[in-house]
Amino acid sequence: MTAQPHEHLTAAVLRPVRGHHAFEGCVEQLATAIRLGVYPVGTLLPPERELAERLAVSRATLREAIAALRQAGLVETKRGRGGGSTVTSQARGRFTGGLAKVSATTKSEWLDALEFRRVVEPGAAHLAASHDLTGPDRDRLAAAETGVHDANGKRAHRQADSRLHLTIASLSGSALLQQAVTAVQSTLDSMLGAIPALEPNIGHSHRQHRQICRAIVDGRPDRARKVMEDHCDDTAALLRGLLG
């Protein structure tokens, strides 16, 4: 017998998402619904049109989110008549299995790190944008941003991403902020290593990096802080949804 979704719970976990955070929001909400058993293993997810309307996103964005869930081993998709996306037995296996070895204390520390990051990294961006940067400072920032965009492979991209964030922290002029961002990036590296590299999120991240760097170079502290906050929020959304 095919498993049935708990439709009476969907309103509690699936809500309209913000437009410019649509992809990350969809992944977070759908992954959470699967992880919490609203859509048990063997359940067929609602049709794309219905889900897109419920989440207030385009069908193209929804398809990208479902592709991310598929890449994460949470669903399998069959095309054509009678097809759709079904929650698989791997939902708590191949993808999240690595977390089973992590202690409850470590998981709690990881989630706390996401909150801490949301405070320190926007602050570092704000301070960096408040300074009059030298030519070499601007060159370092531009090189770091380009390095992320040009990186090939998940590990190389992750390291280049960390270098950009550490460069921004260094431009803040605060040694304590640099230490804080270094600690946060170290923890973030462990968390991001447990999820697949998702192309839509990477593309979105590149655009945010460009906006953050532009705000810093242009001396717009409030803009730099706001975009960095959005950037941290999007990463946290993916991690909360996929890692639980």
Automatic annotation (TrEMBL):
InterPro entries according to UniProt: GntR_C, TF_FadR/GntR_C, Tscrpt_reg_HTH_GntR, WH-like_DNA-bd_sf, WH_DNA-bd_sf
Keywords, comma-separated and alphabetical: DNA-binding, Transcription, Transcription regulation
Domain named HTH gntR-type: residues: 20-90
Superkingdom per UniProt: Bacteria
Protein's UniProt keywords contain DNA-binding: yes
Keyword Transcription: yes
Protein name: FadR family transcriptional regulator
Species for this entry: Nocardioides baculatus
Lineage: Bacteria, Bacillati, Actinomycetota, Actinomycetes, Propionibacteriales
